[in-house]
Design goal:
- The chain is an alpha/beta fold.
- The chain has 2 domains: about 150 residues, Alpha/beta knot (3-Layer(aba) Sandwich), CATH 3.40.1280; about 60 residues, tRNA(m1g37)methyltransferase, domain 2 (Trp Operon Repressor, Chain A), CATH 1.10.1270.
- It is built from 10 helices and 9 strands.
- A 5-stranded parallel beta sheet has the order 2-1-6-5-7, sandwiched between helices. A two-stranded antiparallel sheet has the order 3-4.
- Bound molecules: ligand 9WO.
Length: about 250
Amino acid sequence: MRFDIVTIFPGMVEAGLAEGVVGRARGRGVLDIAVHNLRDFTTDRHHVVDDVPFGGGPGMVMKPEPFFAAMDAIIARRGQPGAVVLLTPAGRRFTQVEARRLAGLGHVVALCGRYEGVDERVRERWATDEVSIGDYVLSGGERPALVLVDAVARLVPGVVGDDQSVEADSFGRGLLDYPHYTRPAVFAGMAVPEVLTSGHHGEIRRWRRQQALRRTLERRPELLETAELDDEERRWLHEWAGTGERPE
Ligand code: 9WO
């Protein structure tokens, strides 16, 4: 999987890619991620990337020319990308479904804005997708781009060591995760649920599926509308609704 990230803060982005699952996959060559300094695509002595807004108003706007030059260079050196994503609060919300779609494209370019915004012609010419990671305003698109790369990269075969853990992930089937425990079996007066230490693997699987389902029902009931449930799970939901039992 190939990513290109265009930013005026390449150090911030490189730092966010250096460690963990993504950093290791990059080291092994499973991920080919290039971080491009937007200032390298300026032609003036001072490497200026911003200018005053037409029409007036506060702050500065990112000039179009460096983004256009960066895109031309990326396409020349690394080929036509499957998507060019602009990270903006005005975009469509980024979800696991969107992550899967982008992972299937093989090559994604992320454009990171700063200041008050990016000249609209960058969006018009280059953006195939505008993506928001949530309803808040940040100082730039770099952190959202790192979020996108992390979520997409995890879906690429070989990035996460154990693909069973990708399968089992929260959102693998559109449900929240079950609770996790490790040793010691009693800590701070709190015991690990007995079923987990029982050695009954069938019961453990069943308990975890129930817990995932209960948590989803309690915390994010809207996810149940699109979750992939089997017949037994649908039956549990009906039972819990019928008895008025509250998931804890
Ligand atoms: C900011 C903005 C606010 C309201 C409606 C549309 C908007 N677009 C932008 C924008 O492109 N901002 C640039 C990147 C420049 C200013 C800082 N930027 C930014 C991106 N702040 N917050 C984000 C962001 C991106 C993705 N998901 C959440 C927030």
